[in-house]
Amino acid sequence: MAQFPFAKPKDAPAAAPTATPAPAAPAAEVPKTKGVKKSGEDRKKPAAQMTSDQVKQILSLVKTSSYSEIAEKVGVTKFQVNRVLMSTKKQLREAAAGDAAKLAKVEAYIKEYLSRPEDTLPGKGGARGGKVKGAVDSLVGDILASIS
């Protein structure tokens, strides 16, 4: 097995014990302040409650904009945009559970109105994932050729 530069060889002598330093005097207690870290920096405030208008706006923009663009326009984070879309899809599917015809209609609605266009999905060669996928495909091909 290869020896890594940071690995200790099996036959190396054990390190001599060193004296442990005396514990330092306890620091003065700093009173805790809500919203402030120990370092004195302000903590990030949690995101504000979303309104139904913001949710409607997110749902209307999903076909034409990226998550980052939607977030900027609506005034939320891209993670909140994702959460809204995933929660909406989940609730629609749960509401249609048990009725195959209704579930098919829900799936068609989700595909038509609540999903990003196929050419913009990551890894599909579209604007958002094509560059990375092409580079990875090329590299994987080179690796496979070198080990064959």
Element layout with pairings:
Layout: H1 52-61, H2 67-74, H3 78-96, H4 100-113, H5 130-147
What this model shows, in words?
The chain is mostly helical. It is 47% helix and 0% strand. The chain is built from five helices and no strands. The protein has helices at residues 52-61, 67-74, 78-96, 100-113, 130-147. Helix 3 packs antiparallel against helix 4. The protein is extended. The two termini are 22 Å apart. The mean pLDDT is 74.
Helix content: 40-55%
How many helical elements?
A: 5
Low-confidence stretches: none
Please state the structural category.
mainly alpha
E-strand count:
0
Summarize the structure.
The chain has helices spanning 52-61, 67-74, 78-96, 100-113, 130-147. The protein is mostly helical and 148 residues long. Helix 3 runs antiparallel to helix 4.
Keywords:
single chain; 148 residues; mainly alpha
